[in-house]
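Design review, sub-item: ligand-bound model
Attendees: FS, YL, KQ
YL presented the inputs for the INI complex:
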Amino acid sequence: MVRELKGNLQGAGLRIGIVVARFNESVTSNLLRGALEGLSTHGVHDSNVTVTWVPGSFEIATTAKRLAEGGRVDAVVCLGAVIRHKTDHYRYVAGEAARGIAEVGRETGIPTIFGVLTTDTEAQALERAGGTEGNKGYDAALAAIEMVSLLRQMP
Ligand code: INI
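KQ shared the predicted structure:
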């Protein structure tokens, strides 16, 4: 018989760290609101959530790593908004944020969720932060809960 593993969305008792970038705060504050809503509607208690603000998306991974290694969270949700401007800066920030966040998850074994938007315009980012395209912060929160549940089922 095939053995199938699937995480659930029961967040009761989970401890979640959120790292959120201040850069493009009009977008990231909406992502944060979505993430907090996603956690609370799935049973994660406010007192089990730690929100840490960092200057920009480039700084997310360092901070996520500290949280993940501290042993006080079951998952880390990373939130940021990298918006393309006229220079190449965007590319480096987005690339390092993605690489760094992925590394934290792999190195620590703590689910570290990529909730960093990368868009051409602020309008596109806002659409994905509580606008017409939903809220990627909310989705990231659910991914965190699901991954904790999944990894707990695995030897
Ligand atoms: N940080 C972001 O989170 N989003 C951006 O769009 C962005 N751009 O385009 O410059 C950005 N830059 C700041 C960067 O994350 C660092 O905070 C900064 O370089 C200091 O290390």
